Amino acid sequence: MKYIKILTAIITISLSSCSGFLDVEPKDSLAPEQYYNTEAELQTALTGVYSTFIKGGTFLNNLGRMGLDADEVYNYRDQNDVADYATSPNDTKILNFWRDYYAGIERANKLLANIDKATSVPQNKRDIIKGETLFLRAYFYFQLVSNFGGVPLILKSIKNSDIEGLQVPRTDAKIVYQQIVTDMTTSSELVQDITAIGNGGRVNKSAVYGMLARVCLYMAGNPLNDKTQYQEARKWAKKVMGVSVHTLNPSYQQVFVNYATDKYDIGESIFELEFFGNGIGIYANLGGFVGSVNGIQNSNDTDIGQAFAYLQTTAYVNKAFETGDLRRDWAISPFTYSSGNPATPTNVAAGYHFNKFIGKFRRESEILKPKHASRTPQNYPIIRFSDVLLMFAEAENEINDGPTQDAYDAINRVRRRGYGGNQFTPNTICDLTGLDHGTFLGQIQLERTRELAFENMRKADLVRWGILTKKMKESLADSKVTPAYSSIVRAQAYFTNASDRDILWPIPSYEIGVNPKLIQNPGY
After folding, report:
1. pTM for the full predicted model
2. Separation CA 250–CA 416 (nearest Å)
3. C or N terminus of the chain, fewer CB within 10 Å?
4. How many Å separate Cα 179 from the centre of its chain?
């Protein structure tokens, strides 16, 4: 059983959640003189930072419901909020996102400020905890800056009575990114190798290297456009590729079955969010909604596992897959379930491209029973090795104004696995060769959908490539020529709502109300 999950259960039961970093009296605060004195207390505090990932505003109930998959899906249940790009400063999902990440930052800041109080704890153990905490704080800021632009950069714990400490203006996005890189670089020197941990559920060196590659790619693209960061992205991706344990799982499908069955694969899954339990007993609040929110709709069959299935796929993502690519019929479900119990699968008509469900996160794969109506034990990927290979290939293409053999080798490993072949064996059916810079970038953009669709990265990719609005309008055009069915109206509303302002979310009105030094983003 996973240590982080057990400890999180204890914290969930014993502590109530802080409602936001701007609260004057955080509900879960513990006076430093009463805590941070032993290794157990440090580990519990660290788990409190990790627990940010399972808050409602981050990766729990809002998973997939904030438009972050952009043109790969549309949300046909949530209406008039960020889920269908009808975003406003009063949006509760955005407010909770802001609050939950800043609450995590405050927890991290408290731990970092007090970690050296525990002088009885060996320095090497304190260093590991510090490294994990630095990474988590940096990751939380990465989520904030990539979605809001410049945000208040708070690097010290705010005392409950410090009203002025809460009045913090937005820090320029470039400075926030620089702090993220600084913290993650320091973290990479302190945390353990993934082989020493044995799983991707805790921060490890490979996870930090991989996330640094992603951060640097974001810095290289819009809106910062710091092209020197392509070299840095390549460097960090190469460090992951140099870790001998990392390789692609021979089966694309098995990657996601592993997440559903609580099996670690440190070759492929470098960092994953851990959910646990089936909504029963002490672990009732530790199950997630992976496969429930973003799975195959199933109303009644409790043996397969019920799913709300908020998301349906688009014509773009259906067309992205080439003939022979085995990933398509796993990533996108080619069937729906009947409404009976037991439910039976029924193939979706070939011409219907806008009413298929995400197939990656299948509740039928879960082995923990009885299956809850909504809570699931499925883990969720944050960094997979295939992502690292694609980031490396993209950076290599940009640095050299065209693909090198190293770039081809990286992307072709991913493609060969997708076609069911050996990742190291040349395959004339799917291998790319002879492309110029622009054509290769186009293939990277498609390949990231084929491999990473529905993993909450598409919008950020489109933003950094400068094509978010363009791609959303292309999907709007697709929706107007598809065969008619009931939810197509929701698809058309989703893509009609998208505009240039959606590159960034609005600063929540509530936060501006309590901190007038915050300035709203354009268009809101």
Report:
1. 0.93
2. 10
3. N
4. 20
